[in-house]
Each structure stands twice: as C-alpha cells, then as structure tokens.
Amino acid sequence: MDAFRFPLKVAGLAEDMEPTQENTMTAKTHRSRSPAPASGTARAFWVTGAARGEIRDVNPGQGQAAGDLGADAEPAGSQQLIEVETLYSAVSRGTESLVFLNRIPESEFQRMRAPFQRGEFPFPVCYGYSNVGCVVEGPSSLLGQAVFTLFPHQTRFRVPAEAVVPVPESVPAARAVLAANMETAINGLWDAEPRIGDRIAVVGCGVVGSLVAYLASRIPGSRVTAIDTDERRLALLDHLGVRFATRTQETDFDLVIHASGHPDGLRTALGLAGKEARIVEMSWYGDQEVNVPLGGRFHSQRLTIRSSQVGGINQAQTPRWDYRRRLGLALSLLADPALDALFSSESRFEDLPETMAWLCQPGNGELCHRVIYPGADNHS
Fold first, then answer.
1. Residue 320 per-residue DSSP state
2. Over the chain, what is the mean pLDDT?
C-alpha cells in the first residue's frame, strides 16, 4: 500500500504554502482500484461500525426518502425520476464525524436523519448530504446539467426531479459541494438577525463559521471579527476579507455567533457579548455534556442565548421561503472564487473508508474535504 497526497492549490493562498500535514491530505490506498460497478448498480460509502466504513454495491434507485425506488420503479403521482452521476461530494466534518464515531445520541436518531439516508443509526448507515452530479437520465431541461442534491456519498442515484437544484453557470461543480455549508451559514444569520453597524464576533472558523463571517462582513457598516485558537486560520480569513484574531480583549460585541463545536468556544462567546447582546449557538455537540457559565455577568448583562439549526427556517422567513429556495440562494452565493480557500484536502471516492478514519482523528484541522468521483474526469 502506498501513501497518496492531494495538496490543494488556491489562487492567492495555497501556492505560497508548503505541503504540510495541515494542507495536504495523506491516507492509505490500494494500488489497484475496485472494478467499476456492473450496469444497473452503483457504489456507496457505508459506516459499518464505530470508526469503520466500507464501499458497497447498491441499487441506484434505493433511498429511504425516495421510497426505495427500484431499478424499474415508476414515479409516484406527478414525480418524475431522474438519474444522477456523482461528480463530487463533500464531507461535513462536524456532523459526519459524529456519525462515523458513533456519537449520535439515541434520542436524536430520527431528527438527525439525512434526507436520503439509508440504514439506521448507529450503523450500518449510508449518510451524507453534499452531492454534486450530472443528470444522465431525465427531462431535456435537466439532461447534462450539474445539480446539487442532499444525497450521501454514492457514485450514481435515482431521485425525483424535485429533489435536485441546478448549479448556476457561475459556480463550478467542484465548488458547489459547499452549498449545504453555505445554507447553514445563511440560516444562522437569519436566526441571528444582524443589524446594520453591528459589531459581530464569530467564534470558530471551520467551514460554517468562516462562511458566517464572510457573509456578515458584507453587511453595510458591520465590524466583524472571526476568532479561532488555530493560528492557521489567519490565511483563510484574510483571503475571505475578514479580520481574524486568536483572542480579543473586547467584551462589547452586539452579536456573537458560536460555531466552533467546542464548549470552550461557547464560554468564549459569552465573555465577548456586550450588555443585552445576543449569542447564537450554531454548534451541535452530539452526546457531549456542555457546562455553560450562567453565573457572573450573564444575568447582569441580560444576555440572550439562542440555538440555530438548519433543519428549521426562522419564522420570519417561513411565509415566503422554503428549503428549496434557501438552497438555491446558497448555490448562487458560491460564485466568488475566494471560497475555494475553504477546501483543504481532497481524495478519490474509493478511498473514503481510509479518508474518513483520517479526517476523524483527534486534532485533525482540515476544513472542507472534497471527494472526487470517476465521472468528474469527463465533466467539463
């Protein structure tokens, strides 16, 4: 077995970085690839145990949310089925690491289901929700078009046409896998309700936190500070045009958004909030208990903590917005080439079992990991 490396080159950022463990993906792979699936089958990544996974042959029409559509299934009612060949998917490290490491609490098994998940928690389960592919069977209006789907890591699949959202021509397919993260960032800011001129702190500069800071910094008059203990995030946030700090003495922010996924980050967020300020909690901790210091200045400063979760849309938006419209907005906001800096590593689909084990190691500081499929080689 040989080690393989995929250092990513991003204009204005990665060319100046030496290949290190932080910006180079390293894992183990077999010299010979698995054979291509037979006609009528696909291949999918399954979590088969705590910190274990494998690639399995599957029926491309099987997907629980799609009603376990068989190869010869007819669409129900007016739903037209399309077939998509996957080009790229992305690993959402926060949630997918909890799934891979068997950290989903039993009380959340149903609420944490992905739209096209197969299997049941804890495992075996086929999980994921950041998939960009090309429509290979379907109506002429979609045929050959790049589309985003909330589908797991799978080479080919069949879903109702309504389940896909076309990728705008201004957004490369390889970047469009960030749509789920961008959607989460949009939803977090809807919940946070930032105001013109707000002093905003974003604690935690992973993919979602960095996107929140990027969007918030575009609000007229806002002063945004992105905070993370990892100094390596400086180059990323500078590339995105956002002020960065590993710590700050300021304690008068109007709005603090926490997205680090660590309890210490939430404690930091509470300490940054000014009088009557809002703290929006975007992190999810799985089965981890979190102790929050609600003594001290919390009551005297009249602080407010609010949770934000992408599964629900702010009630102020629901009369006009649905999930499809929100996802379309997320895709349209990915036209900026600067966002390519959010990809820190990539690997081939067949290597996902080893890749996931590597990504979930303690202390792994990767941002978005992109998975490349055989179909990407033939897609312009």
1. T
2. 87
